[in-house]
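Help needed: design a sequence for this.
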C-alpha cells in the first residue's frame, strides 16, 4: 500500500484523497488485499504531525511494516 502525504498535508492513495477520519478503515481494508506493508511518500513540505498520524493509523490497522520516503 502506498500513501502519499502532500505538501498541504492531504493523504492520497492511488491519486484519490482519503480523509484523515477514513485512514484507519481504508488502510485496514487494503492491508487484507496487500499485506506486504505500507510505504509513505511524504512531501518535504508536509508536517511531521501528518506523517505520524498516518503511521499511527497504519499501526492501529495492523500494518507491521512501514517505510517512509521523502519526495
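Sure. Designed sequence:
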Amino acid at each position: 500500500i502506498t500513501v502519499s502525504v502532500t505538501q498541504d498535508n492531504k493523504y492520497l492513495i492511488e491519486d484519490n484523497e482519503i480523509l484523515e477520519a477514513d485512514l484507519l478503515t481504508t488502510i485496514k481494508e487494503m492491508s487484507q488485499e496487500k499485506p506486504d506493508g505500507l510505504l509513505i511518500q511524504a512531501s518535504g513540505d508536509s508536517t511531521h504531525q501528518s506523517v505520524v498520524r498516518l503511521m499511527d493509523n497504519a499501526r492501529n490497522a495492523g500494518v507491521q511494516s512501514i517505510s517512509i520516503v521523502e519526495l
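The radius of gyration is 11 Å.
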